[in-house]
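[Meeting: bench + compute handoff]

Bench side (C.D.) handed over the final construct sequence. Compute side (W.E.) agreed to return the predicted structure before the next meeting so the bench team could plan truncations. Sequence as handed over:
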Amino acid sequence: MSAVGPQAVAIARAWIGTPYRHQVSVQGAGTDCLGLLRGVWRALYGAEPELVPPYTADWSEPAREEILWRAAARHLVALPRGGVPEAPGEVLLFRMRTGAVAKHLGIATEIGARASFVHAYTGHGVVESPLSEPWARRIVARFQFPEGAR
């Protein structure tokens, strides 16, 4: 288990209640799922590792490019593909529809029978949701934050 995991969980939970706002990353004011991950990163490490270009709600779908997956692989530590999280603080990448690109992120908060994750969800804002079967079967990749948080 990553030593950074519990810190990531505490930071993510502090964002709960932040409204959903596309392409924003400001705790309490607005965020989307990528903005939540960016906010957790900033709290753990300081500056973000790269600039995030503007993106639309359907980003990467027309070109069918796994942009989010590749970005996660550049900065996070890849874990065995798919499956359920094995430790709190894992970053979960979801494919929302079969055949679609993976473009939703969450952070595992609990594992086992009471598995849950924090994510920014359209129409709901930042929430902690049970990692129910419909969510779990959409996981296509898992990552952990690198060691060395401040």
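W.E. noted at the follow-up: The radius of gyration is 14 Å. C.D. will use this when planning the next construct.
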